[in-house]
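Can't paste images in this forum, so I'm doing it all in text. The chain is below; anyone willing to post the predicted structure tokens underneath?
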Amino acid sequence: MEQLRRLSDVDQVTPRHGLSIWAAQGRRGPGAGDGKIAYAKLWYEDDGPKLGVEVLDTVKGTRTLMPMDKNTTLGVGQTAITDDGVFWIEDADGTDTGQAAVRRADLDGTNAVTVTPEARDGSLHAFSVTAWDDAVTVTTLPRPRRGPTTRCRSCSRSPPTAGGGAQRMSCNRGDQVFGAADEGNRVLWLDGTTGWTNLVKRDRPAGRC
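Text version of the structure:
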């Protein structure tokens, strides 16, 4: 299935982890977004390590940093790229329970917006992100009050690229990972609720569960 190319393992880039770069998920076919690749970037300045998201245009050979505060960003997660924009996971608060913002900007770094915030209503424990022209899919890893966990419950959400808040895509209670955006509002993910690992899809939000 074509959609399976967008299911992959992800991690976050933080200064304490050393140099680690995760390439973007391509929206269609080979070449991440028509010759453009978005990735997390770690570099060093006189006052210490800095984090950001950079877009490489493999045709023109240019590199463009996305608008982020390099002095406050503590972690950068997976990136996703579409025909006209870049999405990324950004963590600027190390004191919360693991929430992270999902942000977007045009390919040239302009028109930056916060799709889902790191704090306040609508925040998510964002773990991975993939995108299509109509929506961006975020897989969440909620943390309990006592320590972190890798268990993901009801984790596939698809907030519109233009805002409007996250919409829950699954009411299942088992492990659900690697949510992948498909065209429209369709989302695919690996679901282990039944005790077996199934590749499932849903064409629209699940509503109240």
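DSSP finds no helices and 13 strands in the chain. The longest strand covers residues 36-45.
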